[in-house]
Amino acid sequence: MRTTGASPTVTMTRKDSGFASGDASTPIRIGVLYSRSGVTSAAEITQLQATMLAAEEINRAGGVCGREIELVCVDPQCVPRRYASLAEQLIVEHRARVIVGCYMSSTRKAVIPIVERHNALLFYATPYEGFEYSRNVIYTGAAPNQNTLPLAGFMLSQFGSRVSMIGSDYVCPYESNRVMSDLILERGGEKVDETYLALDAPWQSYLEAAQRIRQLAPDFIFSTVVGEGIPHLYRAFAHVGLDPYRMPIASHMTSEAEIAVMGSDLAEGHITSAAYFQSVGTAANQAAVARYQERFGAAQTTNMCWEAAYFQMHLLADAIRRVGSDDPALLLRVLPGLEYDAPQGRIRIDEHNNHTYLHPLIGRVNARGQFDVISRAPARVKADPYVVSHTPPAWTAAVPAELARAGGDR
Amino acid sequence: MKRATETPSILRDLRSLKVVVIHPQDQDGEELLAQLQRIGCEVQMFWPQLECLPPDTGLVLMAMRPETLGTSFPWLGTNTSPPVIPVVTYENPITIEAVLRLNAFATIPSPVRSFGLLTAIAVALTQCKVSRARERYIERLEQKQAKLRVIQQAKQIVMNARKVSEEEAYQLLRSQAMVKREQIETIASEIVKAHETLSF
Fold first, then answer.
1. Which residue, A126, A135, A234, A367, shows the most beta carbons closer than 10 Å to its own?
2. Which of A183, A388, A391 should one mutate to test binding to chain B, selecting the residue with the greatest count of B CBs within 10 A?
3. What is the fold, at CATH topology level, of the domain defined by A10-142+281-357?
4. Which residues of chain A have pLDDT under 70?
5. Is beta strand A249-251 parallel, antiparallel or unpaired with respect to A271-274?
6. What was the pLDDT predicted at A11?
7. So where are chain B's domains?
């Protein structure tokens, strides 16, 4: 994965005492908190590049209210307290009122007290475990009812309810597994194994887990592994000779970014639930992917986190245009209810919970490392971050079994 | 390493929880209402008075303000009253004393933030349930203790009157209870009463 160089609109950690006032000649500064190194940097680098692409598009079209968007990019290196101190630096020293970024929940939790104290605004573009609302955060990634729930409904009805769970050892996997466990128990299914591995667990740990899974022979594997562990898991799975078309790994975090790292041969046949895949056929997506590859290289792939990072910048620009300011108090008057034609389709910020209506999909990785969509929600789905008891949506059970088992073009 | 366990029933039932909020419609009130609705509870707001609770109220959130400190709520403090979470704006002794009188298990500080409400609700509901169960248990223990005391007194009376051992006195009480198809403590209590009547 290549890292980005500075571009004309991007300030890389340049300290500056100037004011970002309402003056038409001064740029609007947006703080950017994505890691360029560390355990989840593969996805975060795509979010950084998506943010740069969107900012450049906005600026090429004349900026907002005649002002240019200026990105102030800092590198928190996947360390939660660095996200906190850099967020404060962006607000206090760089005078940014709006920050885009954070990935793991621990990093978002570290930044929330900072944005609340300074009444700044954080745009968070990653799926997470729910049970949160801060008036200073706009959540553009999926809540569990938009990814875990459809995935659970789909897998339990198409593959069976003997489930092996493997995840990274932190809060989001615990919560996803709670949702999955409840649904398994309701069906009289069985949780045959539940393993949590450290974020920096070595290959050997994944190999041992894969060997155990092979012995247990579950109907499918529910993975909540994030970051660098994902390629390890899929490699270990192939290494012990398991067949993804019979016993797939189902995940809501494995995206094109991790597939690019592991290679499509290891990923083919496995299943992911997300509100966006690079293969989505909308005109908005095809155009955005083309511009992205032109800007960052033809080999670059996009993914669910990329897409949320991309559309949230356009949403933000639209909100700034409407109120003529980057003052969070004013932006929060127009962001709830705001809609945008994102690459995944038309999205909307909910009026009451600051989360986003999204279009849940179930996809299976094909030989090219892209996702074939094998099931989709009939309409966009409201985020319900505080729902405790889940009922899987009907569309996840309505898939013809041959399609679910065989994949889109097999 | 943590294992996902079954979700606590208190959390599962939140979407059918009926919450009464006794709070003015200021910024705190709006924040409370909005967060309760995000959580998915059924909410009704009142201020400052509420003579009787709507049926099936499962939880009350109450602003601890001068208006409520001076108001009496007849539905408070009974053994069927729902738990109350005070919303605390002042930390002076009078307000804290009022909070203590509510037997609260959790409080919400003002200015109200969305964060913390869900945990406070879960703690208040759980602890209220635990505390009710403990009260019922203590009540049963007390009743049992009272019965044992009466049986002990009756045994003593029978031992003195019939010159028998404690075990024989107990067996006499027991056989009387069986003949009369009564509980042993009923027989014991009749004997104690009769003895008191005669001991003038």
1. A234
2. A388
3. Rossmann fold (3.40.50)
4. 1-24, 401-410
5. parallel
6. 55
7. 9-115, 136-198
